[in-house]
Amino acid sequence: MGFVVVTAFCSFSSFVGARGYDGHVVPLQSPIHIKAILGSSASCSAFSDNKVRFNLKYEVVRNKKNSTIFRGTGGVRGRKFFFQAPVTAGGALGRFEVKFDSTRVTKGSAGESLILGAISDNNPKLYFGKVFQQNSKFFSGAEERATLLSRSTGLITRKDLLARNWSDDFRVKGTTTIEGERYLVVEGEFWLKAREAPDPNSDGSFEADIRWDGYYLVHIRTGFVKQYFAEVSGNFVFVGGAKSVNGTENWDCEIKAPLTATQIAAAKLKAQQDIARVAEEKKRRAKIEATRRREEERKNQLAKIEKERRQEEERKRRAAKVAKIKKVPKRPDDIAVIIANSNYTKQGKGIPNVKPAYTDAKNIKKYFMELLGVREGNIIYLKDATKAQMTSVLGSNDDHRGKLFNWTKPNVSKVYVYYAGHGAPAGDKGTTYLVPSDTDSETVQLTAYPLKQLYSNLGKVPATSVTVILEACFSGQSQDGNLLVNTSGISVVPRMPTTPRKITVISAGAANQVASWEKNGSQSLFTKYFLKGMSGEGDNKPYGNSDGKVSLRELKKYLDGNMTYYARRYYGRTQTAQIVVNGKEFSPTN
User: Fold this and answer.
1) How far is the C-alpha of 206 from the C-alpha of 197, rounded, in Å?
2) Which residues span the domain enclosing 287?
3) pLDDT digits (tens, 9 = 90+) for 291-346
4) Do 497 and 382 fall within a single domain?
5) What's the pLDDT tens digit per position in 507-528?
6) What pTM did the predictor assign?
7) Is position 560 within any domain?
8) Contact yes or no for 361/420 (Cβ under 8 A)
9) 282 and 399 assigned to the same domain
């Protein structure tokens, strides 16, 4: 025997039902034509009680020459082999060529069959490693039932083979169905006797007498063997003695076949149904999403309406609180001066700008007019005032009678002065100055307006009261940099002048502190919270007593609780508003 491929299943009794075959067979009523189908493939594994292992993979494919071929690879007893055969246009298999470990073993002729797990109309014999002359036919006519799969006998002699006789008889019992696929059920036997010339250098067999009785299932659509089972009996006679080969052989394959027309139609129908189901599910989800979005929009709209309602209520509440602050009647004789120095770089004298000065001055003007009753015609408004303009309004050291003095009605007018801009110390004594827009940073003491002169001239104005609001600091520093040339930090200690008795001064911070802005530079913190406090918030708890007016004590507590807090929160610096009344610093406790 050139080679014996030992394949295996479990025994018939254990096989039935365990692998989908329940033993039910339907006899053939008409011929069944089996053809090789392009795209089909199988992967097989086998074992036996004699521990002979076998693996096989085969398929029907197109080769590089675009020809359809049946090809496979396998291995047994540590040796590998491959085989192939052409497939005709009708699906029949042609001549087989088999190679063992890349060495040609045999090449079939037109009458030979070497199927190794595949059959067709022209080659109906299922082959498990045997080479023999095939003369019988699978079908002799359409009217004859196919009951005989193969029957053959033969004798082979070679130099190393004294004799080899075999006989096989396999018959088609009918068909069975497993998982929707039809299979031929084939039963039969194979008997082999062989005598080989003894090899003194080997302990291999030199005589065999073995019989196989079993069956297998053939996939009708592809011709591939699905399952095989055989009971083996007999023995080998070795140089060292005889060895029994009684046991079973099993073979199981996983077949992948192209879809049938019915399966394709079913697959197309399922795909269409899946598409329709997905589309329906998409519509359903879209409908749910649309409903969810409408509900979300409705909730958002209701939330927006509720927010606007609350904002309106809050506005009315605040307006009502502001309304409690007793607005003075129009006072046609009161005078106000507003100075907003923002653009210092325009003069090119090395002094940084004060970004929020214009906005602060605009808001203060509104406060003077609406809450204090000052007529717009009685407001002297200076934007980026020069020293000459400030002197013209506020007076000089030699003559205190500036425009403000001349506009004031003696013992009738109240006077308000608001300044937003830089303040700075200068000179050895740290004299403090208001910084006009044309001040030279190198000669502040010569080009700026002295704060002492402001207080002195205001003390000579014949008004019933004078209130000065300073959105400035006098440390020589600002939010945008130093005012003093060639200095880093405070090198001159500012010295604040005393104020006449009838003047009230409310300033943004102590002499050595920095006047802070909002982070975006839109407003100064002092002016923002001064106006909020004086507009009514300073009268609310915990700062005031809600009596309808804001006292200086309430204003100071409000500024400490808000302006001072945000200066520390934004910049980590201390800024405390200063209030001086009748020449004395005012605090909430005195």
Assistant:
1) 6
2) 259-324
3) 999 999 999 999 999 888 888 888 777 665 554 555 667 889 999 999 999 998 88
4) yes
5) 999 888 899 998 888 899 999 9
6) 0.48
7) no
8) yes
9) no
